[in-house]
Write a structure and sequence with these properties.
Helices cover 35% and strands 14% of the residues.
Length: 293
């Protein structure tokens, strides 16, 4: 990562993956058991459907991620592999389905996430609230992280998340300010910061955000983003390598080295974040069970 003037993000250059991005196949008794349950009961986890590189490690520690509100998003972010289009009708049985999946898998710490549902009057916030309540009823010992969309910054929708009190509320800033318009087309950098700030102002105990690197940002811009997140009282930050889901998505401009990730971790800890997860294969839910403390 250089400190030179950044070049345009639209350059179509495919770079070979470096050796530190090689992923070992998930193994272990706990992973094998959960893999069998997922297949037997046709459970829907982002871990499996998204082929997360950390699936074996997370499942071995009793953590898994579930996506609600369907698998079609109303937004068309340039980095994301989720389908864009007209979403299906909301499935009001989904809270019970997710809760049952968590119980069958005996998940200790569950992460809930969703597509953006700008097509709904409540932006999907009622389904969010009902899902958390259902998980609490069926799995009272399971702790929760909610990785939420921005709900267009509308406070009454965010309040529904705060009211059900998940242990961690996460909302990803995703990239630096300069690249937000190209990377997160319908999102706004300042709006995301505002959501994170509002969560804290309203008493949310633990907040979290995530950044992808390799889209053409500079070192100084990453550090500026860390400062912005900390200035808005974010407690936990995850920093990982962007990988291009398909040829239609934004290209990888740079593969960030392990030493660079280590530097950002040290900078983040120096700024006062409680936890900083920073390495090439880190994703939003990586080591999520640690972040409640």
């Amino acid at each position: 990562m250089t400190t030179e003037t950044p070049s345009t993000i639209t350059t179509k250059v495919r770079q070979p993956k470096p050796k530190w991005l090689r992923v070992k196949l998930p193994t272990g008794k706990k992973y094998t058991e959960l893999r069998g349950l997922v297949d037997k009961y046709k459970l829907n986890t982002i871990c499996a459907s998204g082929s997360c590189p950390n699936m074996g490690e997370c499942w071995g520690e009793g953590t898994a991620t579930f996506m609600i509100l369907g698998n079609v998003c109303t937004r068309s972010c340039g980095f994301c592999g989720v389908k864009t289009g007209r979403p299906e009708t909301v499935d009001w049985d989904e809270p019970e389905k997710v809760s049952r999946s968590i119980k069958i898998m005996q998940i200790k710490h569950a992460v809930l996430t969703s597509v953006d549902r700008d097509d709904l009057k409540d932006m999907g916030s009622i389904m969010w609230s009902e899902t958390v309540k259902a998980v609490r009823r069926m799995n009272p010992e399971t702790t929760l992280e909610t990785l939420i969309p921005d709900f267009q910054g509308i406070e009454k929708h965010i309040d529904r998340i705060i009211d059900v009190a998940p242990e961690v509320v996460s909302h990803n800033i995703e990239t630096v300010k300069r690249l937000t318009r190209e990377v997160r087309i319908q999102a706004k950098y300042e709006r995301s910061l505002g959501v994170l700030k509002y969560l804290k102002q309203q008493g949310q105990r633990r907040t979290k955000s995530g950044i992808m690197l390799g889209l053409g940002e500079t070192r100084e811009e990453v550090i500026e983003t860390l400062h912005d997140l900390r200035a808005n009282d974010v407690d936990v930050v995850t920093i990982g390598q962007y990988l291009q889901p398909s040829k239609k998505h934004l290209p990888v401009k740079e593969f960030i080295t392990p030493d660079q990730f280590k530097e950002f971790e040290e900078i983040g800890l120096g700024l006062g974040f409680r936890h900083v997860e920073s390495s090439a294969l880190v994703r939003s839910s990586y080591k999520a069970q640690k972040h409640i403390n």
